[in-house]
Amino acid sequence: MKICGHRLLIVEDEPLLRITMADALRNEGWAVDVAEDGVKGAALFEQHQHDLVLSDLVMPRLGGIELLKRIKALSPDTTVVIITAHGTVDRAVEAMREGAVDFIAKPFSMAQLVVRLSNVCSVRVLREQNVRLQAQLEQRHSFANIIGKSQVMQEVFELIRLVGDSDASVIVHGESGTGKEMVASAIHFNSARRAKPYVRVSCASLPESLIESELFGYEKGAFTGASERRIGRFEAASSGTLFLDEIGELPLTFQVKLLRVLQERQIERLGSNRPIDVDARIVSASVRSLEEEIRQGRFREDLYFRVNTVAIDLPPLRERREDIPLLAEAFLREFAADRRRDIEGFSDEVIDRFEMYPWPGNVRELRNVIERAVLFCRGQEVTVDELPPNIRGGVQASAVGETSPVMPMHDAVERAEVDAIRAALSATQGRRADAAELLGISRKTLWEKIKHLEIAVD
């Protein structure tokens, strides 16, 4: 039972019961202190700050509720269990409102007492674990983990701080691999909804036939194979945040239904006509320009205005080169710790290569490169020998507008896409599935772009 702590205080004015409980609980491994009334109990608690207090409710000089208030004032996390007689159950309930976790009514056996305290301790352990896990989750998704000292990233950090305290819909724009999902999770975990669910939906990976059932859920028997009820992502994210990754990939037929849900804050499961209230904050992301998608008739303008209360634009890595060493060092620490490797840093030549390379896969590609380098590194410093061939060869940076002549925007975008796809295919030795993952797009989208852009592949 020491999972609840080590030191226990018994405050009981009946001598025989006090001695019997103390003996029983010492046999369970507790270090037990005893007091015959509330005044002495308070003095002992001030001296030892016990992990658990077992106190009678009705005692001379200082009663159990007053003792409870003093204990909670000194140590809010201390577990307090009240002992009560049948005639004072109402006051025991009052004590629970003041912070006691449970009460046990006289008469009881020592076996019953041990079981009751064991249950109390188990609940406390679960609560503490939940608090720790929530803290770890918030730390993992804190915007402090989005690394960057560049001015453009400082502006992104400020936007995350500003929107965190609101329920405004946010859309995050950026090339594949720039960290759109990390920004979305940082918005959630820095908001008032942080303790509620964060649910991600990859719109690009959902077959059109499954989008509605995935997002809205379905009732048993709604279609062949629906053997039981299943809630959708909207319900799962209620009171929390729903992240619609690559929202621009949703078909127009579903965009109408999504707009209605966002307007009415209600969904209907497939196979049901009963509306269900949902309260999910919407954060979206798109690698495409949704304004251009609207002009091309592929995205609804009214839906765009609904999801675009605040827009956050993430720059490609080639436009914030001063952040590359910081990111590389952070990824190196992460992967070296994971693999228990003593790797202190990068050679100067590696840093030079990193700063020359155009990083078509952005931060995601840099992260993959560092993970690979840690895997192959045999010394205490990453050298160019551990880099992929396309980076080791010293590919020059060619950000649009820096070394390239001015060209129409459409041509510039297509050129950048060609460069990114070729680099991804080179980095993955031609494996299209891996290249699509590196670029953050579906395999179907990658294949369509290869055909449209007439990129030669082996």
Q: Could you characterize what this model shows?
A:
Residues 7-121 form the Response regulatory domain. InterPro entries: AAA+_ATPase, AAA_lid_NorR, CheY-like_superfamily, Homeodomain-like_sf, HTH_Fis, P-loop_NTPase, Sig_transdc_resp-reg_receiver, Sigma_54_int. Residues 146-375 form the Sigma-54 factor interaction domain. The modification 4-aspartylphosphate is found at residue 56. It comes from Candidatus Sulfomarinibacter kjeldsenii. The strands form five sheets. Strands 2-1-3-4-5 form a five-stranded parallel sheet, with helices on both faces. A five-stranded parallel sheet has the order 7-10-13-6-14. Strands 8-9 form a two-stranded antiparallel sheet. The protein is elongated. It has helices at 15-27, 38-48, 64-74, 89-97, 110-140, 151-164, 180-189, 211-216, 233-236, 252-264, 290-295, 301-307, 324-338, 348-356, 362-376, 389-392, 409-427, 432-439, 443-452, and strands at 7-11, 31-35, 52-56, 79-84, 102-105, 170-173, 198-202, 217-218, 230-231, 241-245, 266-267, 276-277, 281-286, 310-313, 345-346, 381-382. It is of the alpha/beta class and 458 residues long. Helix 6 packs parallel to helix 7, helix 17 (409-427) crosses helix 18 (432-439) and helix 18 (432-439) packs across helix 19. It has four domains: 2-137, Response regulator (Rossmann fold), CATH 3.40.50; 148-313, Rossmann fold; 318-395, Orthogonal Bundle (Helicase, Ruva Protein, domain 3), CATH 1.10.8.60; 398-458, Homeodomain-like (Arc Repressor Mutant, subunit A), CATH 1.10.10. It has 19 helices and 16 strands.
